[in-house]
Write a structure and sequence with these properties.
This protein is an alpha/beta fold and about 350 residues long. About 45% of the residues lie in helices and about 15% in strands. The strands form two sheets. A six-stranded parallel β-sheet has the order 2-1-3-4-5-11, with helices on one face. The N and C termini lie far apart (about 85 Å).
């Protein structure tokens, strides 16, 4: 096996010079660097990127922790991934997705390996043990989401409260008062206090209470089209008074529309739908295409990477806090409320 000593002899330099070329720990003249790199190519020497990273004290790797073992990635989440990866590359870093559970010990173990410079934490819960596990460590982290009390934490998040308020107001303007909110069944996935869901539920209740509905219908549904279809049939048969739905469940949305149609309830003539926190791809899978509120995943991806790079460079800087609202997008699932008894 070719060693650094072999490279040093071929390039007529010291082993320390070869090490500095590999690690970037000290500046080396262009001519010397070229001789060393030519010797490595001629001899077939293979760099050890982990060793070089440890020598520098930086790996230029950011880990994106997503609990893929518990929750399937939606179109909105994939938009975040690709945007964050592109932004990291623009700024000279590599983004790796770490598809683990939301276990605090796993998150802390990864952060403490020294193999990553920073961590982006997704699917944040209101009381998130992962945050408490990461706080004592030296690895910077940024939340894509918010805990119940995010004071002192760096985060970028969707403003689900204002987004929900806009969705209910849009339905109200069309005369809808009998509205149900369909969420994901996150409790079964051990994401009981999912921040986005908790805030959206609380805001939906407030909005409906202001409109004289004290106990609005909120129904969880597993995140898949088959269960969505079952739920659609159930809503049409057991809750015929409903004239509108707010959905926060991308994977179930097309199935819900099919289930409503199976039971004789037409969208939007009989029941209107707004899909909140959604993507164009998922909204377009329904027939008819849904009116939806686009999750600003691409924007959050870029902002999240910028925030973690700032934390890595300056741990004492004031932690930024960013909220972005969803944007209403056109579709074919809204109509004035039908007359009900």
């Amino acid at each position: 096996m070719v060693t650094m000593n072999d490279v040093a002899k071929r390039a007529n330099v010291s082993i320390a010079t070869v090490s500095f070329v590999l690690s970037g720990a000290k500046p080396i003249s262009a001519g010397t660097r070229e001789r060393v790199e030519t010797a490595m190519r001629d001899l077939g020497y293979r760099r050890n990127p982990v060793g070089a990273a440890l020598a520098r004290g930086r790996t230029n790797i950011i880990a994106l922790l997503y609990p893929a073992l518990q929750r399937p990635a939606t179109g909105s989440v994939m938009g975040f991934f690709t945007s964050a990866a592109a932004r990291a590359q623009e700024r000279g870093l590599n983004l790796v997705m770490w598809p683990i559970s939301n276990d605090a010990n796993e998150a802390a173990a990864l952060a403490n390996t020294g193999l990553v410079d920073g961590v982006l934490l997704m699917e944040v819960q209101m009381e998130d043990a992962r945050v408490q596990a990461l706080l004592p460590g030296s690895t910077p982290f940024v939340l894509i989401g918010r805990t119940r009390d995010p004071a002192g934490l760096t985060f970028v998040d969707v403003d689900f409260e204002s987004s929900m308020s806009e969705a209910v107001a849009a339905l109200d303007a069309l005369g809808h008062r009998r509205i149900a909110f369909i969420t994901g069944n996150w409790g079964d996935l051990h994401l009981e206090g999912h921040g986005a869901a908790e805030r959206s539920r609380a805001c939906f209740r407030r909005e409906m209470s202001q409109r004289g509905v004290s106990d609005p219908l909120i129904v969880p549904c597993p995140e898949n089209s088959l269960d969505g279809r079952r739920l659609g049939r159930m809503l049409a048969t057991e809750h015929p008074e409903l004239t509108a739905l707010v959905l926060m469940n991308e994977h179930a949305a097309p199935g819900i529309v099919m289930g409503l149609r199976d039971a004789g309830s037409r969208v939007p003539d009989d029941i209107s739908i707004i899909s909140i926190g959604s993507s164009a791809n998922m909204a377009g899978m329904a027939d008819p295409p849904l009116n939806y509120m686009r999750t600003p995943g691409e924007e959050l991806g870029r902002l999240g990477v910028d925030a973690i790079i700032e934390r890595i460079a300056n741990a004492d800087a004031e932690p930024p806090a960013v909220l972005l609202a969803c944007e209403m997008q056109p579709g074919e699932s809204l109509a004035p409320a039908r007359a009900t008894r």
